[in-house]
Amino acid sequence: MSARNVLVVYSGVYGHTHKVCEAMRPVLERHGAQVTLSALPDETPDPAAFDAILMGAAIRNGKHNPAVLEFIERHRGVLEDKPSAFFSINLVARKPHKNTPETNPYVKAFLQTSPWQPQQVGVFGGRLDYRRYRPFDRWVIRLIMWINKGPTDLDTQVDFTDWDAVARFAEDFAARMEGQAA
Ligand SMILES: Cc1cc2nc3c(=O)[nH]c(=O)nc-3n(C[C@H](O)[C@H](O)[C@H](O)COP(=O)(O)O)c2cc1C
Prior knowledge:
This protein is of the alpha/beta class and 182 residues long. It is 40% helix and 23% strand. The chain binds flavin mononucleotide.
């Protein structure tokens, strides 16, 4: 396959979404892609200049960053025309019965509101690391964890991400990209 330019646009606050995107990079590169990572809500490159677009967003206080929907609304045509995919990262997805696009409430809500219906959708468990959070965030997320029967010990540092599933998602994306280029 000739080198294909992939734009990975992501939205997160504490670095885990970025880490998930970085974990996808070598998988895509093995398939001959050149990967550009770009964080929302900063200025992102024009997706029309890329061959494929991958979008990832973490949930914060029950929502993806509004910049995610703004990006989708602005670039809907490009997202629909090119190989593209979306994944969400959240702590609810740590629960086995809520870790698929069909069962995860945030992904379901996303698909109901997004004008773009991605060809490929994923959801991965996030990271819980109280020590990294600003004080207000620490208490908000602790309350959310208490309500959801998650870890509330402020020393908790736990990664709920299934890294094999992350790699499989990137493999599937690369395969679709190759298939659509053929
Ligand atoms: C302030 C804050 C609020 C969060 N709110 C939610 C939430 O409402 N539901 C949820 O499932 N996860 C929630 N999370 C978990 C994040 O989605 C998860 O930690 C993710 O890995 C964060 O990615 P980031 O490091 O890229 O910001 C929250 C995390 C933080 C820090």
